[in-house]
Amino acid sequence: MIKSLIPFGKGALFLAGALFLSAPSLHALDVPSTMQTSDVVLLGEVHDNRRHHEVQAALLTELQPKAVVWEMLTAEQAQILTPELLGDTQALENALEWAQSGWPDFGLYAPVFAAAPQALHFGGQVPRSESRRVMEDGIVAVFGEGAGQFGLDQPLANVEQAQREQEQFTNHCEAIPVEMLPMMVDFQRLRDANLARAVIQALAETGGPVAVITGNGHARRDRGIPVYLLKADPELTLFALGQSEDGVSSGVFDMVLDAPAAEREDPCLAFK
């Protein structure tokens, strides 16, 4: 049984003492009414946590959105998704060339892909190869038409810029040149805005609701996709779900679900 909700950060909720539910059990629960009625539902994740993907699959099954936007797919990849392909796990993995994508094992994501076969699918990924263009030309030029609509033409406040650069430095095990940090912050902003643009396109083509499968960092209300979506359309209603590990989470969400941390090697070993 899920225990009562308690405050978790500004504007967020944390499920205290939550039972770690399997997808079928979660599907049987009533989801929050604000999630059911929102134009856009952001379903955050830690990319390699299996339980987080089970939660996403269960919620997609419950919500049955008209469209799904994927952080993991480019616009071109999303266009090939059909109900038939979504129903064939091996064929889907091959068609998306997942093994070469750099994302965690496809088996983690397969239930999420299978949960909304009748939805239209959209990709919001910015290829990492674009990072050089960001350094050379800036995010406004790389994003292209409409950059101002999403606020990309406005720099971050100095305090927020410095905070984000420090987070990037820490998250990369203090092993990257400090002169790269502004570009990395810009690239994150570009990715948020590009995902927001995909959501706006999905809403225009389907009328919504739209679900977004993305990492927690992009789902958070205080700096992720919601910031750029509401800049483009202040009338949208949004619900942001974060998923923490062992009670640890960063950012502002409408609700946070907790799960045990996935077993993984120390990510800093790669920098050594």
Q: Can you describe what's shown?
A:
Residues 1-24 have low confidence and may be disordered. Helix 10 packs across helix 11 and helix 11 crosses helix 13 (225-232). Strand 1 and strand 2 (13-15) form a beta hairpin. Helices cover 41% and strands 13% of the residues. It has helices spanning 23-27, 33-37, 50-63, 75-78, 83-86, 89-95, 106-114, 131-137, 139-143, 158-171, 181-206, 216-219, 225-232, and strands at 5-7, 13-15, 40-43, 67-70, 120-123, 210-213, 238-245, 255-259. It contains 13 helices and eight strands. It has a six-stranded parallel beta sheet. A two-stranded antiparallel ribbon has the order 1-2. 39% of the residues are buried. It has a single domain (9-15, 35-262), classed as Rossmann fold (3-Layer(aba) Sandwich).
List keywords for this structure.
272 residues; alpha/beta; Rossmann fold; six-stranded parallel sheet; two-stranded antiparallel sheet; 8 strands; 13% strand; globular; disordered N terminus
- Low-pLDDT windows of residues: 1-24
Query: Any idea of the CATH topology?
Result: Rossmann fold
Sheet/helix structural class: alpha/beta
Estimate the global geometry from the Cα principal axes: globular
- Rounded mean pLDDT is 89
Question: What is the total number of structural domains?
Answer: 1
Which CATH C-level class is it?
Answer: Alpha Beta
Estimated helix fraction = 40-55%
> What value does the Rg take, in angstroms?
18 Å
Number of H- or I-type helical stretches: 13
Number of strands: 8
Main sheet strand line-up:
5-4-6-3-7-8
H-E string: EEHHEHEHHHHEHHHHEHHEE
Distance between the termini: 44 Å
Largest sheet, in brief, is: 6 strands, parallel
Strand content: 5-15%
Q: CATH architecture, please?
A: 3-Layer(aba) Sandwich
